[in-house]
Amino acid sequence: MDNVNIALAKGRLARKTIELLHEIGFQFNGWNEDSRKLIFQETKQNVKIILVKASDVPTYVERGAADIGIVGKDTLLERKADVYEILDLGFGKCKFAVAGLDDLVFDHKLTVATKYPHVAKNFFYKKGIDVDIIYLHGSVELAPLMGLSDCIVDIVETGQTLKENGLKVIEHIADVSARLIVNKASFKTKSERIHPLVQRMKNMLAVKEDGKRA
Ligand SMILES: Nc1ncnc2c1ncn2[C@@H]1O[C@H](COP(=O)(O)OP(=O)(O)OP(=O)(O)O)[C@@H](O)[C@H]1O
Ligand SMILES: O=P(O)(O)OC[C@H]1O[C@H](OP(=O)(O)OP(=O)(O)O)[C@H](O)[C@@H]1O
């Protein structure tokens, strides 16, 4: 039987992803949240999970080192990998937004600080606004406070980080949630393994949706 490798984003999405995999019948040898191991074997089936930095998940899947990946839509919008995006998993929900101290003033070229340069550039480009992108690795909210940029493009979940730093959402860009992606070749060559797995996930998500509505 073909083996199936699943790349999971470490960090915020990991716990919910493992939970979903448990719910569809997978158990991983030795898995616990504090472990430093990066590969876990499923107890009965020929399935492995590998724990990858979120932004690297599309790379593993695009190149076939993993057949399946679970990663945020934010990463997919930024990375534009050549993979199939199969399912919206409905967790890891947040939004991409433009935020700043105040409404934008267009009397000079806008500077935009972000961890997502492609998303930011694309958003303003489509509006016909030329921007200067400043790439940061984190704590992006600091940039407008310290005069480094006019605004930021970042993820907003609860809005707490913006609020505690005196910033506000200026414009909504896109909704984000965790997605299931599949390598294009694996989707065909390992279809007997991958299609049932996807179907089980779909069924489980439908059951959960029904549970919420009831
Ligand atoms: N409040 C949030 N902030 C950031 N990401 C969130 C949030 N809520 C959900 N997410 C989702 O979780 C994913 C993983 O976020 P996480 O912070 O673990 O990794 P990361 O953005 O690569 O961070 P780091 O660079 O610090 O490792 C994001 O890509 C996004 O899809
Ligand atoms: O709306 P909230 O619920 O406050 O969440 C949004 C914050 O969470 C993320 O940062 P993260 O914690 O990943 O840290 P970072 O600044 O190092 O990217 C994101 O970049 C925002 O700063």
UniProtKB/TrEMBL annotation:
Any GO BP: L-histidine biosynthetic process
Gene3D superfamilies attached to this UniProt entry: Periplasmic binding protein-like II
Domain of life: Bacteria
Keywords carried by this UniProt record: Amino-acid biosynthesis, ATP-binding, Cytoplasm, Glycosyltransferase, Histidine biosynthesis, Nucleotide-binding, Transferase
GO cellular component terms given for this protein: cytoplasm
Main location: cytoplasm
Molecular function terms from GO: ATP binding; ATP phosphoribosyltransferase activity
SUPFAM superfamilies in UniProt: Periplasmic binding protein-like II (SSF53850)
Documented EC number(s): 2.4.2.17
Residues in ATP phosphoribosyltransferase catalytic domain copies: 53-202
Cell compartment(s), UniProt: Cytoplasm
Catalysed reaction, written as an equation: 1-(5-phospho-beta-D-ribosyl)-ATP + diphosphate = 5-phospho-alpha-D-ribose 1-diphosphate + ATP
Pathway listed: Amino-acid biosynthesis; L-histidine biosynthesis; L-histidine from 5-phospho-alpha-D-ribose 1-diphosphate: step 1/9
Function of the protein: Catalyzes the condensation of ATP and 5-phosphoribose 1-diphosphate to form N'-(5'-phosphoribosyl)-ATP (PR-ATP). Has a crucial role in the pathway because the rate of histidine biosynthesis seems to be controlled primarily by regulation of HisG enzymatic activity.
Domain comment, as recorded: Lacks the C-terminal regulatory region which is replaced by HisZ.
Stored NCBIfam families: hisG
Family of the protein in this entry: Belongs to the ATP phosphoribosyltransferase family. Short subfamily.
The protein's assembly and partners: Heteromultimer composed of HisG and HisZ subunits.
HAMAP family linked: HisG_Short
Annotated protein name in UniProt: ATP phosphoribosyltransferase
Organism of derivation: Fervidibacillus albus
